[in-house]
Design goal:
Layout: E1 25-36, E2 41-51, E3 58-63, E4 66-73, E5 78-80, E6 82-84, E7 93-98, E8 105-112, E9 119-122, E10 134-137, E11 157-165, E12 171-174, E13 187-197, E14 203-206, E15 209-212, E16 217-221, H1 226-232, H2 236-247, E17 255-259, E18 268-269, E19 274-277, H3 290-297, E20 305-307, H4 313-332, H5 334-355, H6 379-396, H7 398-412, E21 415-417, H8 419-431, H9 435-441, H10 443-448, H11 462-475, H12 490-499, H13 506-516, H14 524-536, H15 543-552, H16 556-566, H17 570-583, H18 589-599
Parallel strand pairs: 1-11, 16-17, 17-19, 20-21
Antiparallel strand pairs: 1-2, 2-8, 3-7, 4-5, 4-8, 6-7, 9-10, 10-14, 11-13, 12-14, 15-16, 18-19
The structure holds ligand BES and zinc ion.
Length: 600
Amino acid sequence: MTTEQLGIAQAPSDVHSYAKPAEAVARHLDLDIAVDFDKKVISGKASYQIENLAKGNQIIFDTRGLNIEQVYLGKEQTPTTFRLGDEKKFLGKPLIVDIKPETDYVTIQYSTTANADALQWLNPQQTAGKKHPFLFTQSQAILARTWIPIQDSPGIRITYSAKVQVPKELMAVMSAENPQQKNNTGSYTFEMRQAIPSYLMALSVGDMVFKPIGSQTGIYAEPATIDAAVYEFAEMDKMLVAAEKLYGKYRWDRYDLLVLPPSFPFGGMENPRLTFVTPTVLAKDRSLTSLIAHELAHSWSGNLVTNGTWDDFWLNEGFTVYFERRIMEEIYGKDYADMLNVLGYQDLEHTLEELGSNSDDTRLKLDLEGRDPDEGLTDIAYEKGNFFLQNIERAVGRERFDQFLNKYFQTFAFKSTNTDLFLDFLRTELIKGDEQLAEQINIEGWVYTPGLPDDHKKPTSSRFAQVAAAFNSWKSGKPANQLQTKDWSSHEWLHFIRLLPEQMSQQQMAELDKAFGFSNSGNSEVLAAWFIHTIRNNYTAADKALDKFLTSVGRRKFLVPLYKALITTPTGKKKAQEIYVRAKPNYHAVSTNTLDALLK
Ligand code: BES
Ligand code: ZN
């Protein structure tokens, strides 16, 4: 396959973008913006080098809730005419700019509004240091268009440079080459020389410092958080070594982390060169670092080889979960990776149950037309995707599969892919007409059929077998404080808590809490799993801790199950609404959009 055959011209159109890249496409962005914390507005210019492939007279960008003030053509900035089309839910409005056949540069002067869902403006109280405000963006899946007018499709890649003006006492970082120190002008410049899709545009502004881990890796965080983060993520260099050994050279120069305030709505976001992470993985024992392996793995699956549309999301996340587990296996051994696989399988079973295993949304290849892509982004892509790849690995052997994957990354590097392109590659490079193998791999069953294929292999874990043994002896009467739980990691605890019956007596709850201190755990995964039981069993001794968790943490993955558990009873629902009113100012729009619908 030639690179041209894999390029834009072949890409199927993206139903979540107004852009028509086959006609006129952006290649490079020069961003020149100012960040105003008083007004909570970003304003400035987005200038694009464009290619007018069709030599027509318009180019279309995506916008949502932006003020478009003026548009200019050419480096000399001649004003041109433009219009905003009709607003569509989730998608916003197309910005249609009149150009000439020879136009190669377009400048859009704009400002953001209060509706910029990508942005979260934090007041000082919402930060660890409590002294300075903080701003961060979250562009995936289709929110880049709420803070930059952009061709907002993962099938389109641009390089970028940026000039960002921020208040003097703050520092700015982006998904690009970054400063390692604050300067005294508040003016920062950035360069991203590798072409990236729009959902990887990222900016954060706040009081932050940098500390190195290895020569190529390091951490940005608020001064109050940096030391805890340096301890927690000390192994990130090892992860980079392991990842390169598996899939080839890291292609983005540096790999740094930015630890955000707790309202960050995700666990992690793989912004190139600078992964954004939640502080809820700072467990003080390095037990939740598979999240870093995950975001690092995206440097290959996602950032280097990118899902061309959100219907192909499993190509980003399923591959990344598979790689995350491989990195963890490399560093911590198979026993460790087995635990992650079993927990992942449990998540998958739960999602299948919630969606219904006949639901079309349980196919790997999705159909999200007319919907917010956020809706399709479930554990199916992550875990069913992972188990599909593990199934292929089992069928051909690890060595062959690794060779195949390395070739896939090389072939599609800095390109967008999609389910058909991947499956073609699988057929020509691996299956090669072997009918028995094709049957084993079962593309139809995994990719296009709802639910899980009957012949899938359920993962097992020897360390969890010990957890189950301890749990069973508790169930048959052994006191909790006499169980063999020495050396359990947070994964073993999580498994234990998930094994607990739905209905427990106050006495049982109190016994467990006294023996293991769950309500006061410093581990967010343990806390979130335990609170499900305290809510169900009306164990009010944990109410204060639950309240504190819900009003300080903004990570959607934790919030949604907890609020869902609360609203199953009328009293719980009242409690949930009361907490939500207080907690909401602390949540990012990504979380409140989901929770508003749940709690209305
Ligand atoms: N890219 C995702 C986060 C994401 C997905 C944001 C879709 C917006 C839309 C990131 O890599 C991710 O998967 N994060 C997970 C952690 C991971 C260990 C499963 C999360 O945030 O929980
Ligand atoms: Zn991911």
